Amino acid sequence: MMNWMRYRLVYLTISLVVIGVGVFSLLKWGLRLGVDFTGGSNLEYKFSQNISTEVASQEIENLGINVTSVQSTGDNSYLFKLPYISQDDEEKITGALKEKTKTDITLLRFENVGPAIGPELIKKTIYAIVISAGMILLWVAYQFKSIKFGTSAVLAMFHDSLVLIGSYALFGHIWKAEIDFLFVTAMLTILSFSVHDTIVVYDRIRETQRKVGGSLMDLANKALTQTMVRSLNNSFTIIFMLTALILLGGTTVKWFAAALFVGTVSGTYSSPFVAVPLLVTWDEIEKKVKSIKSMRKKS
Asked: Where are the transmembrane segments (predicted)?
């Protein structure tokens, strides 16, 4: 059995460094908000034959107009989401695409739209996350008969959120990645993934405690040894699929898959190397405090 908890301070230090880099990126460069948050223009075209969305997007960006996303809406029909553009910009884009793709193009739709995700929806989403985190904390604490388990699980969950948000601030600065509705979806998905993996480890700690007993540190080491391979195998299957989507999925799903990729890696790390070390450290601090109080009473 490997003594995983011997290096728990190293694990937590790595997490703090990663979060620190993310917070620095967030404060220095901020997040690039997409059309879903800021509003913009929708251009929908029907092409006479199949085209490469990457080539079409690059041609539009060569005109100095950023392409937020491209969605297939039917047979050789595509919806391009852009920042606000004028009628002249639309005509330039249409002409450039005709020349580049050498196909007949029909403009199906050109409209300027407001933000799909307004301040009220953002506020409700934050409330939902806080309420769900509170319910998770209480439920895990009830199931494992200790507030330490619930708090450590929720802290690991927020760890993954901070890593993902900080990563996107960095991605936005380097690769112009934008925050959109799909990013919000990915973040909420990752939160559930993180808690699920943590509970698997916690459950193994509880089972081992019932069978053989022992200190929480020993129980944690045994639980991690028994669940590590399963957790890695499960995560790698997801990571391989997401890697394929990032490389081959095109502009429509690339950054959505990237968000899931970062969240999956962070969740795989945080369950054994954040949630469990926090639990063990809390337990040790609690024992030391009780020991000090006991010594004071005796003296």
From this structure: 9-27, 125-142, 154-175, 181-202, 232-249, 255-280
Distance CA 24, CA 273 (A): 23
What DSSP character marks residue 33?
Answer: B
Q: Which helix (H) or strand (E) holds 34?
A: none
Give the right CATH number for 4-32+118-292 from 3.30.200.40, 3.40.50.2300, 3.90.1150.10, 1.20.1640.10: 1.20.1640.10
pLDDT, one tens digit per residue, over 94-132 is 999 999 998 899 999 999 988 877 777 778 888 888 898
DSSP calls for 127-180: HHHHHHHHHHHHHHHHHTT-HHHHHHHHHHHHHHHHHHHHHHHHHHHHH---B-
| Residue 69 parent element (H or E) | strand 69-74
Query: What is the per-residue pLDDT across 242-269, written as a single tens digit (0 to 9) for each?
Result: 999 999 877 778 899 999 999 999 999 9
